[in-house]
Each structure stands twice: as structure tokens, then as C-alpha cells.
Amino acid sequence: xxxxxxxxxxxxxxxxxxxxxxxxxxxxxxxxxxxxxxxxxxxxxxxxxxxxxxxxxxxxxxxxxxxxxxxxxxxxxxxxxxxxxxxxxxxxxxxxxxxxxxxxxxxxxxxxxxxxxxxxxxxxxxxxxxxxxxxxxxxxxxxxxxxxxxxxxxxxxxxxxxxxxxxxxxxxxxxxxxxxxxxxxxxxxxxxxxxxxxxxxxxxxxxxxxxxxxxxxxxxxxxxxxxxxxxxxxxxxxxxxxxxxxxxxxxxxxxxxxxxxxxxxxxxxxxxxxxxxxxxxxxxxxxxxxxxxxxxxxxxxxxxxxxxxxxxxxxxxxxxxxxxxxxxxxxxxxxxxxxxxxxxxxxxxxxxxxxxxxxxxxxxxxxxxxxxxxxxxxxxxxxxxxxxxxxxxxxxxxxxxxxxxxxxxxxxxxxxxxxxxxxxxxxxxxxxxxxxxxxxxxxxxxxxxxxxxxxxxxxxxxxxxxxxxxxxxxxxxxxxxxxxxxxxxxx
Amino acid sequence: xxxxxxxxxxxxxxxxxxxxxxxxxxxxxxxxxxxxxxxxxxxxxxxxxxxxxxxxxxxxxxxxxxxxxxxxxxxxxxxxxxxxxxxxxxxxxxxxxxxx
Lengths: 491, 100
Prior knowledge:
The structure holds two protein chains of two kinds. By secondary structure, chain A is mostly helical. Chain A has helices spanning 8-17, 19-37, 44-64, 80-107, 112-130, 134-152, 159-190, 195-201, 205-209, 211-227, 236-243, 246-271, 276-299, 304-324, 328-355, 371-374, 376-390, 396-410, 414-440, 455-473, 476-490, and strands at residues 69-71, 76-78. Chain A has one domain. Chain A has a two-stranded antiparallel ribbon. In chain A, helix 5 packs parallel to helix 12 (246-271) and helix 11 (236-243) crosses helix 14. Chain A is globular, with a radius of gyration of 22 Å. Chain B is mostly helical. Chain B has one domain (3-88): Orthogonal Bundle (Helix Hairpins), CATH 1.10.287. Chain B contains three helices and no strands. Chain B has helices at 3-23, 27-53, 57-87. At the A-B interface, helix 6, helix 7 and helix 11 of A face helix 1, helix 2 and helix 3 of B.
């Protein structure tokens, strides 16, 4: 057997393509070890170290630029799209850490493993967003999911937390099995798992007509649909979101969604454009179902966390609208919306986290009564995030939805856009219901006393608010970056 | 052993796993079903990389999946253990407090 030769230059490029991921994983391990070395009262250092690591990783994404760096013989690529999602995911992770400063103190999650698991999950998401091989995508998906299963059940003495973890695990593992079997079938027909190679093979009509390949693509889509919680694969979402510690819920809703959509966008736009004539009908149906079921279920919720969970399902539907057309315009709108959604949703969860006194009971909508006038800053922030989620100008949520629906109209999917706008209108009812509770309902007993936020916590809320407002007024530059990212994918 | 037979075994294993997941109410049994599904995919990978593509990509993929399945099982058993310590059962039906 010939000795294995190592190409030093190729190895260097490969390492270069995953520098941000390496930094995140190194930080995760360092935080875990640091936890053993420091005393109980210095545990807040852990969070600071995590933030430092995320900062360095963000800088490395910036330093690598938008150029295309392929690594590990085409398993991973750092391109415009990879860089865009790295920024989205790392920002969501940074916001989580900023909010965790306060949350950990109140709920006792000041533990090395808590921060370490969040960082490990983040690294999985980044791998998933940059994977150009179905194998890398699958490995990234599992690396992100396994820490999240643990995080959802982190309050291990709270029944709801355990129950959320159990349900999320069982359905998540089931979905992974589907995804993997789908990849196996695609591999069976085409003999490759590389996404760009798959794209060229799809011009062969024999492969397109093969029942094994169709079954494989179907299973692959089901697996992704579970992860981004599309109806009818959304059953786990409300339970897992309600049971999980609220910082984790915020993290899941923003970052997991972004990573799973990144992989889905890559597969749909690069590997499967040849299947567009068949695929758009399926995606159309999924988008309509997801928007409608998500919004209608959210109308009747009284638990704020559950309400936001259903709203997050509905938002997955909106983002899918951008993918139905499968062109640059739709892809660009989806990317922009994923970025905006991360900030507005995490902001909303942040305020809700402050108002709720403790896990489980504190999240009833009645708890919001009277907050608006007594605590004007909190009231104003939550109102801002909610109207952005509802898509009312001049917020970023409005701009995002505008581009999503106009992309659908430009590609001739008029009915899809109409259904989307109707859904968006319905969603305003439950977002404004929360605002009404804050400003117009007199509380039965006392107005709930929110927990005083730490400085870093307030910074996270202010940063989200600034992003939501600024992108609502001057979205052009970010939209251009999103467009370049999608174009870098199609090169 | 031919490719066809291996594929039939893979598909049969996948169906067994699916059946287990859908019918059993015990969380540990569901986990076993998930493992069957993962291993069905593994058989496909190994069979195809051996008979068709001649490259070892599929076999490497199978090794990765085995590692992942082990990690997943570890986390799953930890969750089930906590569940058992809190409620005294790991029946999936018992976990129905969250609703709406």
C-alpha cells in the first residue's frame, strides 16, 4: 500500500476555510476547562470568555472576506453565503450569551457546560451552513442537535424542561434517520454526496425519473422540514420551546432555524434546480400550510413562549415563500429575513424573559398587564419587536416581508403572495394582543415586577432594537450583501 | 451476497425501525427503532460504495454515522434517566403536560 501523502498547501487552505469554526470549538473547550479551575463567585468570567471567543470568530469571518475558499476536497466551502450565515449564527450566539449573563444568575445556569454546549452547537450550525457535501451537512446537523437536546433539558428537575427535551429528542432523532436514509438513497442512485456534482447529474433524465432518487429527495426534504419546523412536521416545536430554558428557546428559534435554512437553500438552489418543476408544488403547499397553521394556532395561545413558538413556525413559512421560486431574488429575500428574524425574535424573547418572574408560571399573557406604563422602556422595546414580527413599517420585519412577497409576485406566484399577506395580517392580531395587554389591561393584582437587567443584557436588547430599526429604514446595503451571497452560491 | 439482496435487507431494516418508532410507547424502544433506521442507511452506504462507486466514501460515511449514533444514544439515555428519576416511567404517553 502506498504511503499517504499530505499536500501541505491544500491542508493550509482547508484549515483556512474553517478558521471561525476552529475558534468557536476551541473556546467551547476552554470554557469547559476554565469552569473547573475557577471558584463559584467568579463563574461570570465563563460568559465573558465565551463572548470574547465569539468576537474573535466574528473578526475572523470578516478577515477571511467574501472570497471563495474550498477546503477538505470539496466538503466545506467558505463563500459569501457561508460568511453571511456565519455572521447571523454568531450574532445570535452572542446575543444568547449577553442575555445569559442575567438569566444564568436567576435560574442557576452559571455552569461551564451550559456555555460550552451553546458554543459547540454554534460550531455545528456553522459547519452545516458551509457544507457542500450532504455528509458535512448531516454531520453539522447532528453536531448542532445533540447539544441542543441537552440544553432543552438543562433544568433537569423541572418536568416541563425534561418533557420538552424528550419530545425534541425523539422527533429530532427520527428526522435525522429520515434525512440519513434520504442521503443514502441519493448516494445509491448518483454515487456521490457532493452537492455541486449532484447538480450536474440532474440533467440526466434517467436519474430524475428514478423512483429511488425521488424517494431520497422526499426523505431529505422531510428531514429538513422537521428541523426548520414546517407543518406538518412541527409537533415538537411548541413543547420544546415552552419547556426549554428561555435563553435556549431564543437561541433555538434564531440560530437553529438560520442554519437549517442555510443548508436547505444550498441544496435547493445548487443541487436541485433540475427538479424545480416538480419541487415548487411541494414547497408551495408546505409554505401555505406552515403559514396558515402556525398563525391560526398562535391566535389562541395564552402562554407567551408558546405563542412565540407558533409565530416562529409561521415565520418558517414566510421564509419558505422566498425559496419556492428558487431564484436569486427569492434567495436574497430569505437570507435578509433570516438575519432580521434572528434579531427581532431574540429581542422579543429577551424582554419576555425579564418580565416573567420565573420559568413555567411567569409566561402567562396576563402577566404582561400594566407593564407598558409602569416600565416604559421595556414596554416600548417589546412593542417594537412585536410590530416588527407582525411586519408593520418602519421596521425591518416589514422590509423583509415586502421583499419575500414581491419576489413571489415577480416569479408569478401571485396566490402564494396573497395568502402570505393575509396570514401576515392575521398574525398582527396576536402580536397586538400582547401590546394591548401591556398598555390597556389593568392587572388583577399587582403589576409584575420585571427583573432588573444586567448591563450586558440591556446591551443585547438595545443592539437588537437598533438593528430592527436601522434595517427597517436603510436595508439597501445588507440586501446587496445578501444578493452577493446568493450569487456566490450559484457560481 | 449481491447488491440487490443488501438493498432489500437495508429497506427491510428501515421498515422495521419505522414500525418500532411508530408503535412502541416506551422511549427506550423508540430509541432502538431510531438505531435501526440509522443502520439501515449504513448498510446502503457500505453496499453502494463497495459494489457501485468503488470509492470508500460511503464506508467512511458509515463510520461517522456509527459515532453519531453512539453520541445520540448517550444523550438520549441521560434524558430518559432524568425522566425516570422524576416520574418513575419512560413511557412516552406520560409526557403530556405541555399542551395548547
